[in-house]
Amino acid sequence: MKNPLSSFIDFTQKLGVEPSDSTDEILKKQTLIMISGLICFAGLIWGFLYVSMGFKFSAVFPFGYSLIVGFSIVLFHYTKRYSHFLFTQLLATLLIPCFVQWSLGGFSSSGAVMIWSFLAPMGALMFQRIRDAIAWLTAYVVLLIILIFFDQAFAEIGPRVSIESRLIFYSMNISAVSVITFFTIHYFISEQIKEKRKNIELLDITQKNKLEIESQYELLTKQRDALEEEQNKTQSVLQKIEKLFGQQVSKEVAKELVNTEGEIDSKLCNVTVMFLDIRDFTSFADSRLPEDVASFQNIVFGELINIVQKYKGIINQILGDGIMATFGAPVQIPSHTTDAVAAGYAMIDKIKELSDNGKIPAIRIGIGLHTGKVLAGNIGNQFRKQYSLTGTTVIVAARIEQLNKTYNSQFLISEAVYQEVKNDGHPVTFLGEIALKGFEKPENIYLLVS
User: What is the distance between the alpha carbons of residues 198 and 204, in angstroms, rounded to a whole number?
Assistant: First the structure.
């Protein structure tokens, strides 16, 4: 069974900690909560002591401190606002002892209770920058000077405190502050030493493992072909899927591929093909630093890929300024056209959201959709394969997307797509029969209003 001190330490490790916190940040938070908890406990003892000795007005301040600190610890646990919590603790620790000293009639009568205020600059030295700690120390010295200046006045208006009571106050104030200071600094340093030892041990283990791996590498190379087929079957399928699609497929598509062991033969499929282009991307990229362009692409394409996966599509190509996606292959999904339209609306909304939130500059995109037959399957050899689509449906979808530049629009669809979604309640505008580059027969083009 753990002793009370160990239980208290374990309890502090659970308060206000976030998953992203480093080991050093966790240690600082834990140490601050420990100090606050100890002073809070001491405040209760001091409050009851003052009440028992007849100093009820003075007892208000340590009781008030315990209440403030207790509430701020609970608030910190739920809000995780470490800087606010730290400032509250330091300010309360600095000021409350001054009020207690005033209420008891000065230094002598209170047993130099203001020594508790020194825990504020000491805490700042542990948890903040040096210049912040100096500011707290300066505030402490200023308050000390003020109390010294008014000490005689406090003594005249304060209650009468016997010599025995003063000695009790002196001994309790000095010993308590000394014990808390020693305990917390000792714990803080010892935990840092433990962490350094762990890092050294991990480094030693890593080096030993490296030597073992190097010595066994040749043996493992010879034995890798002898692994049991049943043991590797699932892993082999997952590797095939990863090579074919990387992180581009939705969960539903991945599940189907596992069931078919990742073998996708070329076949004629009815699909909806999407082309998306970022407007004026060339001028956008030329006017910015390469790292800014890369960051922009990561944000935008990351969100677009998530949307395609959400609506059961796959990414066939990621271009510098756009993407090509397919809905309805390799897994046949009857709702591929409505899924593609929903994905297009979601993409437009997401781009607007990112722009409104200041995560990316204000941009426009162009989307083109066409539904039809394609030849879909793996193209390549045993060393490299790529899932590809072939057919006029792909070309028509690309040509429709390019029309967005002409009509200054964002979302255009073909007649085939329109026939599938015309009863879904989407606001549609018929643009007319439009000749597409490379095709003799014009195509009915519709604008989906976003």
Answer: 10
pLDDT at residue 307, as a whole number? 94
Residues written for the chain: 450
Half-sphere exposure of 24 (CA within 13 A, CB side): 5
Q: Is the pLDDT of residue 395 over 80?
A: yes
Per the listing, tokens 């979302």 go with 411
Residue 338 to residue 424: CA distance in whole angstroms: 9
- Report the alpha-carbon distance of residue 72 to residue 82 in Å, rounded: 10
The residues of the chain that CATH labels 3.30.70.1230 are: 247-448
- Tell me: pLDDT of 29 over 70: yes
111-121: b (≥16 Cβ within 10 Å) or e: bbbbbbbbbbb
- d(CA 313, CA 272) in angstroms, rounded, equals 9
Q: Which two tokens stand for residue 307?
A: 């949307």
d(CA 226, CA 160): 91
| Phi and psi at residue 313, to the nearest 5° | -105, 175
Strands, DSSP E only, in 155-287? 267-278
**Using an 8 Å Cβ cutoff, are 271 and 417 in contact?**
no
* pTM: predicted TM-score of the whole model, two decimal places: 0.46
End-to-end CA distance of the chain: 65
- Alpha carbon distance 43, 64 (integer Å): 8
In CATH, which of 2.40.30.10, 3.40.5.10, 3.80.30.20, 3.30.70.1230 is domain 247-448? Answer: 3.30.70.1230
Whether the pLDDT of residue 391 is over 70: the answer is: yes
How far is residue 441 from each of residues 270, 352, 396, 412, 433, measured CA to CA in Å? 21, 35, 11, 18, 9
